[in-house]
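User: Quick one: structure for sequence A, then sequence B.

Assistant: Sequence A:
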Amino acid sequence: MKTLSRRTFLSQSGALTGGMYAAMMALEMLPAAPAHSFSLPGSGQGKSVVILGAGLAGMTTAYELTKLGYRCTVLEARDRTGGRCWSIRKGSTHTETVNPTQTAQLDDGLYFNAGPSRIPHHHQLTLQYCRELGVPIEIYNNVNEGAYHFSEGNGALSNKKIRIREVHNDMRGYVTEMLAKAIDQHKLDAALTTEDVTKIVEYLRAEGGLDADKLYKASARRGYVEPPGAGDKPGKIADPHTLADLLQSGLLSPDFYNVAEYTYELQMTMFQAKGGMDNIARALEKKLPGMIRTGAVVSSIQNLENTVRVKYTLKGAPQEIEADACICTLPLPILSNLDHNFSSDVSRAIDFVPYIQTGKIGLQFKRRFWEEDEQIFGGITHTNNDLTQIFYPSNDYLGKKGVLIGYYNFNEKAKKVGALSLKEREQLALEKGGLIHPQYKNEFENSFSVSWHLTPYSLGGWALYSGDTRQTLYKAFIKPDKRVYFAGEHTTYLNAWMAGAFESARKAVADVHARFTEQRLQYPASGKEGG
C-alpha cells in the first residue's frame, strides 16, 4: 500500500472537502478547541491578498494573514469598519435606500447596538478574540423573568402587561398538575413501578409548585403584589391567572413562546463588549494600519489565470487591484449586483440565498423608569404587535438616562415598519411601547432607527438557509472559486452571530495559506507543532 504524505493528504482532501481547515484539524495540526491564538506553520511572505469587506470576517482574515507575512488590502464601501457590527452613539449617521440621512442625538456615553448585541458563553472563538484584542466584556442579561409579555387581543389578559414569571410559573403549574394526576391515576402507557411513580410525582410537584393534593396554587416564585419586608409585612401573593385566560389571551402563541433559557444560543451566561459591540471591530481596525480603504465600492471581481482582479471606485475615481488571492466577505445581496466570472454553482447560490428583513430602533429616555418604577434590569419584553421585542440595557444600571431598543422585529413586521418614515417609526415605537410603559410619554427624548434590509452594502440582516439549501446552495461557498475564497456568517452554520464571522475567517485563512505553502512546506511529523 502506497504511503500517503501529510502534504498529499492535505492537497487531496482539501480539493474534496472544499478547504484545508478541516483536514488540518483532522491531522491535529490545529488545536482541537477553537479558543486559542491562531498559529499556522509556514510563511506567506511575498503573496498578496485582497479582502472585500471590513466587517469582522474581513478584518479578522487580514489580521491573521498579516501575522503570516501576507500583504493585505481591505476594501470597504462604507466610511466605517465593522459592517453589521455597529453601535449607535452620538453623531452616528445612517442613510437608507428610502429615508433621508439621520444623525444620532444620543447623549455622550449612551449607545445601543444596531447589529449583534449578545455573545453566548459557548462562542469560544468570539470570546478568544475579545481576550486577544483586549476588549473588555460584561454580563448581558438575556433572561429576565421580571420583564413582560404583552398580547394585543380580546382575551381576559389581553392588552395588559403580564410579568414573564407569572406566565411561565402558571403554565408550569397547570401542565405539571395534569401530568401528575395522570401518572398517579395510571393513565400513561409506560410501565412504571410504584416507586417510579412516587419519584416522578414528587419531581412534578416541585417543578410545578403543586400542593399535597397535586393542585397548582400560586407561590412566591411568580412574584408578589406586595413585597415582604420588616415587621408585620409577610408579603402578598396574587392569585394565578386561570389556564383558560392564558390560552384565550394569546400568551402561549409563537409570539411569546421564546423561552430563552431553553434555546442553546440564548442560554445564560451571555456577554457583551463594554461600551458597545463595535469596540471589537475598532480593536481589529487598530491592528491593520494602512491596510483598509474605506469608501471603496467594488464593481467587479474577475478570476484571472494566476491572479484575481478587483475593480472599484474610490471617491468617485475608478481603481483596480490585482492580488494572488481574494477573500470575499460581502453580503450576498450586494455580491449579486457585481460583475464577476464565478462558476455557475456559485452564481446560482449568490442569487438565490435570501437574507432576513430586520430592524431596530433605539429610544433615549431621560430617566431609567424601567429600573426605578418596575425593577427591570436587562432582559426582553415580548409582544405580538409590530414591536416584537423591547430590549432593556444591560449596562450602566442605576444611571440617570438610558437607551431602550424599542423594537427588534423580523420578516413581514420588519418590512412593514421599515417602509415607514423615520418619524413614523418613532411614533409607532412610542405608541405601542406606551401601552406597556406609560412613562414613555413624559420621559422620551430622541430616537434612531436602522432597517438592515434597506441599508446600503448590507440589504439584509443575515443569510437564511433551509435543510435543502444547506445541501445545495450553501456548499458553493465552503470551497474556493479558483482564487476567490468566501467568508462571513453566510458561509457557516452560525448565521446571525459574530462567531460565524470569526469561524469563517479562520477557515478562509487556513485554506488560503495551505494553497500557497503546500508546494514548499514540509508539514511537521507530529501535528501538535501546528497549533
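Sequence B:
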Amino acid sequence: MSRSIRLVSAAGVVLTLAVASGCSGGSGVNVGGAGSSNGGSTSGGVLQAAIGGEPDQLDPQKTSAYYSFEVLENVYDTLVQPDANLNMQPALATSWDTSKDQLTWTFHLGKGLSFSDGSPLTSKDVVYSFERIIKDKLNSSYKFTTVKSITAPDPATVVFTLSAPTPNMLANVGGFKGVGIVEQSNVDSGKIKTAPVGSGPFMVKSYVSGDKIELVPNPHYWGPKPKLAGVTYTFVKDPTVALQDLQSGQVQWTDNLPPQQVASLKNNSDISVQSAPSTDYWYMALNETHKPFDNPQVRRAVAFALDREAITKAATFGNATVNQTAIPKGSQWYFEYAPYTHDPAKAQQLMGQAGVKNASMDLMVTSQYPETVRAAQVIASELGAIGINVKIRTLDFAQWLDEEGKGNFDSFMLGWLGNLDPDEFYYAQHHSGANFNFQKYSNPSVDKLLDQARTETDQKARKQEYDQAAKMIVDDASYIYLYNPDVVQGWSKKVSGYQVRSDRAIRFGQTSLTQ
C-alpha cells in the first residue's frame, strides 16, 4: 500500500493546489515554517495507539508500508508539507522561489535546524537525502525524473535544477514522509531501519519487534513542542481486539476498527469515531507475464465478471465509494468513466474470444489488511462463475511484499493512499518499467501521455492528458479499480487536538491526553 503509500477527500483541494504550486512566471513563498517559535510545553501522558500491523522498517525512503508511515509521520520532516486541508505549507523550508522558466526551484531553510540527536540539519543533508532517493532508485525516485541537479550553495539554501517544468514539484518534495530528510550517519550505520534519526516532533525511544514502538518528544524540534509525554504504538491485527482495547482504556487511539460497526460507533458517547473521504483507491492487478493474463481480453473478462458493489460491501461494509478509475469523485481531476458493468455473460464471451475456456488464478491477499481477505471471497466466487478457478493465498504483509516484488503471483488486491497529485495515481503504477508496475503493464501511448502530463503547466491540457491515460489504463485493465475508501479512526474522550485527515497522515504533535 502504497502516500503515495502503498498499503498500500477533499481531494479536489489537494490536487488543485498541487498543480497551482507550479507557479507561472516565477514566484516566491514565505509563510513561516522552521525557525518559527517553538513555544508550548510537553504535558499529559503517553498516548497508547493501536495500529493494525507492524512496520516493515523505519527507513522512510525505503519503506512503502502504511504501518511504517503511521510512526514516521511524527519522526521525520520534509521541506514542505500538506496541512489539514492538504494545502502545501512551509516546514523545514520557510520559503521558496521559482524562476520564470520554472526550471529552478530554490528552497530557503529555517534557522537552527537540528536532527533529534542534536547534530545540525543543513542544506547538505537535504541534498544527500534527495540524491540518495534518486541515485539508489528508492521508492520515490520516479517523482524526480526531471531533476538535473540538487545543490547547496550555502548551509541554508537548496537549489533544484530541472530539465522541464514540474507543476507538482511541491507535492514531490513534501507530499509524504517518504521524502523525509535523513541523517547520513544514521543511514551508513544501518540503524535507520529500527532507530531512525529525524527532525520531527518525536523521536524513537525504543522498538521491540513484535511488540511496540515508543516515541518521546524530540528536544531539538524546531516547531511547537509536543503536548504529549510520548506515543506508544502497539500492533493489534484484530479490529475487534483494537476496539475492545479502546473501549477499556487500554489504548486511547486506533485506526483499526471493525468496519461493520463504524455506523453504530459514531453514535457511541464513550469514544469518538470520525471518518473523512480519502484520496485512496483499492484495486486488483493481474500479472501480465503470466498466461492467460497477458491477454487484455482475459483481463477485461475479469473486470466484467466483478460486482464492485458486492466487493465493496464485503470489504468495507459501506465505508467506501465504488469507482472504476483511481481518482475519487469530488476531485477536479476525477474522470467519469465506468465501462465495466457486472456482466458474467459478457465476461464469458471475452474469454471465448481469447480462446480461454478454463483458467486458474492465484489471488494474493494479506491478513494485515482484512478487507483484502473479505473481498477475495467474493472475487473468487464471481470469477468461478466464468471458468476461472481462484486459489486465495493469504500472507502476512512482509511475505506479501516479498512475493509481489519477485513477481510470484497471478493476481493481488491492495491499495494506494495519500495521493496528492494525479501523477501519483498513475505514473509509478502504469508507466513501463516504473517502480511499482509489478503487473508489468506496458503501453507506449500511456507512457507518452504520463510523461507529457507531469511537465504540462496548462491545467486544462494536463487534465485532458490524464483523462486519456486513465481511459487506456482502464480499457487495458492494467489495474481493475474497485473503490475509494473512507478514512475511519477512533479515540478516547480524553484525547483532544487530534484531527482525521483525508491523506491519512497521523500527526500527534499537538494532541493532548487528559490524565
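The chain has 15 helices and 22 strands. The longest helix spans residues 459-476.

User: Thanks, that's what I needed.
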